[in-house]
Design goal:
The chain is of the alpha/beta class. Helix content is 37%, strand content 17%. It folds into 2 domains: 182 residues, D-Maltodextrin-Binding Protein, domain 2 (3-Layer(aba) Sandwich); 146 residues, Periplasmic binding protein-like II (D-Maltodextrin-Binding Protein, domain 2, 3-Layer(aba) Sandwich). This is Phosphate-binding protein.
């Protein structure tokens, strides 16, 4: 199906923007804090030859990006419907492996067992591969009256989230924040209750940078002691907003949308590093592709000490069958992912606090999508 004309696209964009505004007002959506002026019109977007419905689920970290992508694609490609549910990486991968979705969003890599399991749902002897599509910093957000520029390092963060540091005026925090008026207030750390790639990446950072203070192996499930839990990134955001002394981890877009202060991290570089798109992009530029045979899994350096490199970075992968898992939705899957990996789709990310995938990595993603057949 060919794209519609500009007038139709503009009309569809306005209707969708009005719908999104209504959702934000209701406050019922996990990803309802999008910027107020989203332009859904895209020149030369190549639509799937046949209209249809596409089901996908997974990472809530990419929910805001997916909302923009889905609505942009639907505004430009009449008759196509894409339903993405931000159920969390763990649930999304399981639904994909059960054959109920066309692709999954995951913030952590599949295990070898999961790759083998994917062969039962992938066509013609195919298997699941990782396509890095979204990146960005995992911000550490906090609610601390009178303190709007908090610096922490990995050992201190590990002790906070393992419930060993219990008050905000603890000497370990004070040493990193000379001159700050730290209140004698209980520290209330919050973590994800659901299986989460965000948790996997955050604990990968803690384990790599402070192995003595955080001896637990990285995992989608929380392994630390104590603390309180909430469901999804939006759940953690709400807990930080509602509770003085709270601290939690979530994607930068959630912090900005909800006006939550974020920690600068002392990595050992000359200056503490803020959670910004630019600093996250610097981390992605250092990543190595470790996958093979069309798989584009990346390896990040969580213990980096490089100047201007934010160490807690999350990459969200679209998990797809290299040869498709359902002929009826293959064309729509390929067209939609081609848009998200294309220049327009990646350009939209920086406007909503994500770091675009760039350079040779995104070129490989585009070639991998084109090769799906």
């Amino acid at each position: 199906m060919q794209p519609r004309g500009k007038a139709a696209r503009a009309s569809g964009a306005l209707l969708l923007l009005a719908a999104l505004t209504g959702l934000a007002a209701c406050g019922t959506d996990d990803n309802s804090g999008l910027p107020g002026a989203v332009d859904f019109s895209v020149e030369n977007l190549r639509c799937a030859p046949d209209a249809g419905t596409l089901l996908a689920s997974g990472s809530s970290a990419q929910a805001n990006a997916m909302e923009v992508w889905v609505n942009t694609y639907q505004a430009n490609c009449e008759g196509s419907q894409i339903n993405y549910k931000p159920t969390g990486s763990g649930a999304g991968v399981q639904e994909f492996l059960q054959g109920t979705t066309a692709f999954a969003g995951s913030d952590s890599l599949l295990s070898e067992g999961e790759v083998n399991e994917s062969r039962s749902v992938c066509r013609d002897g195919g298997r699941a591969v990782h396509l890095p599509m979204v990146a960005g910093p995992i911000a550490v957000g906090y609610h601390l009256p009178g303190v709007d520029d908090l610096v922490l390092d990995a050992p201190t963060l590990a002790r906070i989230f393992d419930s060993e540091i219990r008050r905000w005026n603890d000497p370990a925090i004070a040493r990193l924040n000379p001159g700050a008026d730290l209140p004698d207030l209980p520290v209330t750390p919050f973590h994800r209750s659901d299986g989460s790639g965000t948790t996997d990446n955050f604990t990968s950072y803690l384990h790599a940078s402070a192995p003595r203070e955080w001896p637990y192996e990285p995992d989608k499930a929380w392994r630390g002691h104590g603390g309180q839990s909430a469901d999804g990134s939006s759940g953690l955001t709400g807990m930080v907003q509602q509770n003085e002394g709270a601290i939690a981890y979530f994607e930068l877009s959630y912090a900005h949308q909800n006006d939550i202060d974020t920690v600068r991290i002392d990595t050992g570089a000359s200056e503490p590093v803020a959670a910004t798109v630019e600093n996250a992009s610097n981390a992605i530029a250092q990543a190595d592709v470790t996958g093979s045979g069309g798989d584009l899994a990346l390896e990040l350096d969580y213990a980096t000490r490089e100047e201007g490199v934010y160490p807690v970075v999350l990459v969200t992968y679209e998990i797809v069958c290299d040869r498709g898992n359902d002929p009826a939705t293959l064309g729509l899957t390929r067209a939609f992912l081609a848009y998200t990996a294309g220049e327009e789709g990646q350009r939209a990310l920086a406007e909503i606090d994500y770091a675009p995938i760039s350079g040779e990595i995104i070129e490989q993603v585009r070639r991998r999508v084109d090769a799906m057949a």
